[in-house]
Specification:
This protein has 258 residues and is α/β, with parallel strands linked by helices. The chain folds into 2 domains: 67 residues, no CATH class; 183 residues, Rossmann fold (3-Layer(aba) Sandwich). Helices cover 32% and strands 21% of the residues. The chain contains 8 helices and 11 strands. It has a 7-stranded mixed sheet. Strands 1-2 form a two-stranded antiparallel ribbon. A hairpin with a 6-residue loop joins strand 1 and strand 2. It is globular.
Length: 258
């Protein structure tokens, strides 16, 4: 069965794979039902999670029910346990909304929730992150996860995110990050898709972020917290929820003027 999943994940184009995954979700969830691992997003438990990845596959990371990955489950736990996101009246903007969050966030009565993306047909607003159609100081919360690594001018994108975030508001800007790398790496001369996928993780990524990502956000004006939320959890919970120990959640705030 694992060999079959590996073959499917490595050979089917990602957009088609996503559609197929949602169609097959009930079957996968039933087949893998058990008590070893739990998806905190919907509370369902399984004997195993699915493998996922490009090239270097990670085993036991994709939830059969929500199709969440480690970063999604970690963010859910952080928002649920450490913020008022689920209870306070907030105006929220979500870039390229993750499917495991989209319907759940839409159902929250406390949120004035808007989604945006340059190409996605399911987004509420079609917009270029480097030239957003929103007014200054518009949103209490902004999610922009695994987006900036696709944007050639990420400085301009960060400036736009800062502009539309309300003073006192917060954002979560997750990115693929190599924590062993001090500086972000870019090289536009690498044009072969296979080579780009090997170096950058995906062929359509334009950089590999290093530790300097946080300082770049600070340079835009954000206050940045490098949240290692797994450090607050027991090893039992890290294993139970299939999290990546040591993964950093970049939480940013727009300071309130004196």
């Amino acid at each position: 069965m694992k060999k079959l999943f590996k073959f499917i994940l490595n050979t089917i184009p990602r957009p088609i794979l996503i559609r197929l995954s949602y169609m097959a979700r009930p079957v996968l969830a039933l087949f893998l039902k058990g008590n070893t691992y739990t998806d905190p997003i919907d509370g369902k438990s399984f004997k195993a999670f699915l493998p996922y990845g490009y090239g270097n596959q990670r085993n036991n990371v994709l939830s059969p029910s929500t199709l969440s990955l480690e970063r999604h489950r970690l963010l859910w736990l952080y928002l649920k346990n450490e913020t008022d996101f689920f209870t306070k009246n907030l105006k929220a903007l979500h870039f390229a909304p993750e499917q495991c969050f989209l319907k759940r966030f839409r159902k929250l009565n406390n949120l004035d929730y808007t989604t945006t993306d340059l190409e996605s047909p399911i987004a509420d607003v079609k917009a270029d992150i480097c030239n957003l159609p929103f007014k200054d100081d518009s949103y209490d919360v902004i999610f922009c996860n695994h987006v900036l690594e696709h944007i050639p001018d990420d400085t301009k994108a960060m400036q736009e995110l800062y502009r539309i975030l309300k003073p006192g508001g917060f954002g979560v800007f997750q990115i693929p990050q190599d924590l062993s790398r001090a500086e972000t790496f870019e090289d536009d001369s690498i044009t072969d898709k296979k080579e780009r996928a090997k170096i950058f993780g995906q062929y359509d990524h334009v950089r590999v972020y290093g530790l300097d990502y946080f300082d770049k956000l600070r340079g835009i004006g954000f206050k940045v917290e490098e949240v290692d939320y797994t450090a607050t959890l027991s090893q039992e919970d890290i294993t139970k929820y299939c999290l990546a120990k040591g993964e950093i959640i970049p939480v940013v705030y727009k300071p309130i003027p004196d």
